[in-house]
Design goal:
- By secondary structure, this protein is of the alpha/beta class.
- Among the domains are: 68 residues, no CATH class; 101 residues, no CATH class; 79 residues, Orthogonal Bundle (Helix Hairpins).
- It is built from 4 helices and 33 strands.
- The chain has a 20-stranded mixed sheet that branches. Strands 5-4-7-11-10 form a 5-stranded antiparallel sheet, with no helix packed on it. A 3-stranded antiparallel sheet has the order 1-2-3.
- Strand 8 and strand 9 form a beta hairpin.
Length: 490
């Protein structure tokens, strides 16, 4: 007798065989008919599937017709497009504290807030003066997604950078001075400090200066003079061939440093200047320069940054513990320039892992012997009820030794994890790795050193980053350094 023929599995309803996917944050929708479908859906059924997916804006009926007429399977087709919103203008901060220095108000934020330039502004202010104004972000063009929803798009906002000695206005659009002093901003907070003020230059009229607090010099520090302060030193003009020393604060120079090969500028925090030429510079934290560093010796405990405008480094030597970053290094005329960052070599992972392996093998052997003896004595005690005094002492000693060996085993696991982390650091560069970064061009006859390893540049290169791999200085495209969470083969 013939077996009954089973009913074949029914095909899915045509509307369910149409897959609709929403992409790009809701501004694109695609249609896909699976390859396995035996009965191709009709135009009406496709539209029912679209309706079920709640897509109702930007639909192109021609795409639906093409899908059905040509029975396209296994290939997604874009059938609906929304209109993404156009972002408005970002909030802006305007530096208004220009009293007595003749400057115009400055637009502090020239780019979206996440790319805030690290520039240092300062000005004399009196209590109640408006230091900074905030222009709110402007509204952009509204968008609409494939669901027909209207989407607003305002510009990026940024709060007032309120710090010590300041307070916001009632409307929240201005930052005001709470005391007389000098208002300063380096990209984080605006501070107003009570300072000693020199209405002019440091020269034969003032002689050398030694101040317990902070100091504001309206104009220049002339060649041959010495200025020393415990706090910050603000200079409205230039430093010539002089000595300027801030014991625990920063030195901020509105114009620049014309060192005449005898200027020495030292700071317990940062040194910020428009340019540095023919000078010796040392900062415990960062050195930040707008325009150029020429024929100077510059040392920084953290970073040396020359990127705001021209960002040129030419001649002399630069050393930073963590990072040097500039736009242009050297020149076509092959001026010798030395760049070096500090480097703490990672532990020799291979040697350490070899020694750890030896310790682990010895530990396993000893632990196996102890646990075998321990198991025998414990079984003996269980069967006999008690042990001789000598064997009780052996049992106690073995239990103590087992605990020690198990503790060592756990310590070995932790050490192994630490070695793995060392290897990861050695093999991958992070955004904070010790490095030298050139955003435009580095020319021949520039020496680049990371720790005790040096290479000499023999041809011009653009947009490049130098980093350390083991006992070698390597380099790669700079774009990798600014792309977060990517391995870069450091």
């Amino acid at each position: 007798m013939a077996e009954p023929i089973e009913n074949p599995t029914p095909s899915p309803p045509p509307t369910e065989s149409v897959a609709i996917k929403i992409l790009k944050g809701g501004y694109v929708a695609t249609l896909l008919v699976a390859k396995e479908v035996t009965t191709f859906p009709t135009i009406k059924q496709v539209h029912l599937a679209i309706e079920k997916a709640k897509v109702n804006y930007g639909i192109d009926d021609r795409v639906v017709e093409k899908l059905v007429m040509q029975e396209i399977k296994g290939k997604p087709l874009v059938f609906a497009k929304g209109k993404p919103p156009v972002a408005g203008g970002a909030a802006r901060l305007i530096w208004n504290a220009v009293k007595n220095d003749g400057d115009e108000s400055k637009d502090v934020i020239e780019e979206p807030p996440q790319f805030m330039p690290q520039r240092h502004y300062f000005s004399r202010v009196e209590k109640g003066d408006r230091i900074l104004s905030r222009l709110p972000p402007t509204e952009g063009t509204r968008g609409i997604n494939v669901y027909g929803e209207s989407i607003a798009a305002g510009g990026d906002d940024v709060p007032l950078p309120q710090g010590e000695g300041t307070y916001p206005s009632k409307d929240g659009l201005s930052l005001l001075a709470a005391v007389d002093g000098v208002a300063s901003w380096s990209g984080e907070h605006v501070l107003v400090s009570e300072v000693t003020h020199i209405d002019g230059s440091v020269d034969t009229q003032t002689g050398d200066l030694k101040i317990e607090g902070s100091l504001h010099i309206e104009k220049d520090v002339r060649a041959g003079f010495k200025v020393e302060a415990i706090g910050d030193i603000y200079i409205g003009g230039n430093i010539e061939g002089a000595v300027v020393y801030s014991r625990s604060g920063s030195v901020v120079v509105r114009n620049g440093i014309l060192g005449q090969s005898r200027a020495r500028i030292l700071a317990g925090q940062d040194i910020v200047a428009g340019f540095i030429q023919d000078a010796t510079i040392g900062a415990k934290q960062d050195v930040k320069v707008d325009r150029y560093i020429i024929n100077s010796s510059v040392t920084a405990g953290h970073y040396i940054l020359a990127m705001a405008n021209e960002g040129i480094v030419r001649g002399g030597s630069l050393f930073a513990e963590k990072k040097i970053e500039a736009n242009v290094v050297g020149s076509n005329s092959r001026i010798e320039t030395d760049l070096r960052v500090g480097y703490t070599p990672p532990e020799n992972v291979s040697r350490a892992r070899y020694l750890l392996g030896s310790d682990q093998r010895r530990n396993r052997t000893d632990l196996a012997y102890v646990q075998k003896r321990l198991a025998f004595l414990q079984l003996l005690k269980e069967r006999m009820g008690n042990l001789t005094e000598e064997k009780e002492l052996q049992l106690a000693e073995l239990e103590k030794k087992e605990n020690i060996l198990l503790h060592q085993q756990r310590a070995h696991i932790e050490q192994e994890d630490e070695l793995d982390s060392h290897r990861e650091v050695e093999m991958n560069i992070t955004a904070e790795a010790e490095s030298i970064r050139v955003h435009q061009t580095i020319y021949p006859d520039v020496r680049v050193a990371i720790g005790d390893v040096t290479i000499e540049i023999n041809k011009a290169r653009q947009n490049i980053m130098f980093f350390r791999v083991g006992e070698k200085v390597s380099f790669g495209p700079l774009r990798q350094a600014v792309t977060p969470n990517k391995a870069r083969g450091k």
